[in-house]
Design goal:
Blueprint: E1 3-6, H1 8-15, H2 24-47, E2 50-54, H3 55-68, H4 71-84, E3 86-88, H5 90-104, H6 108-120, E4 124-126, H7 129-138, E5 142-144, H8 150-158
Parallel strand pairs: 1-2, 1-4, 2-3, 4-5
Helix pairs in contact: 1-2, 1-3, 2-8, 3-4, 5-6, 6-7
Length: 159
């Protein structure tokens, strides 16, 4: 894999441990997902994978990371996301995202990620089950992180 679309869920879960107040089953799953998302971010950096994101992803990363951290940390994560990814503006994605939203009833937010992966014909990495289902319906190669094991993730990056 030379390039991919990275959903904000993977970025956020890669940076932040899950809340320990979650039920034990959900906490265990989310702790494992955090590990896999961290591994993905590490492999992307080490393997020089070209990451595409819609511009709205930067805003979402800023908002969610601010809920989990102080303002300075949140700003650093959002700035790193912006500077390390190829950020695609709404004007390029709008028509396709709109079409996907109308055809599949996916959220507007999800539709932008799906549109980008579809237009570039590259994998979408997400931990959003709903986004994953809509992406698969669109014919996008979508990888749902919580359902992938460590070996499958390593295989994505090592070929």
């Amino acid at each position: 894999m030379n390039s991919c679309v990275l959903d904000s869920s993977v970025i956020i879960k890669g940076f932040f441990d899950p809340n320990p107040s979650l039920s034990s089953d959900i906490y265990k799953r989310e702790k494992n997902t955090h590990f896999k998302c961290s591994l993905i971010l590490k492999h992307i950096e080490e393997s020089h994978i070209f990451v595409y994101i819609p511009k709205v992803c930067v805003v979402e990363v800023a908002a969610v990371s601010r809920r989990f951290s102080d303002k300075k940390t949140s700003q650093l994560i959002a700035a790193r996301t912006y500077s390390s990814c190829c950020v695609i503006g709404e004007e390029e994605l709008f028509s396709v995202a709109w079409s996907i939203a109308e055809e599949q009833s996916s959220s507007g937010f999800d539709s932008y990620f799906i549109a980008l992966a579809s237009m570039r014909n590259i994998p979408l990495l997400t931990d959003d089950a709903g986004m994953h289902v809509h992406a698969i319906k669109r014919g996008v190669n979508s990888i749902l992180i919580r359902e992938s094991n460590e070996a499958e993730i390593k295989k994505l990056f090592l070929g």
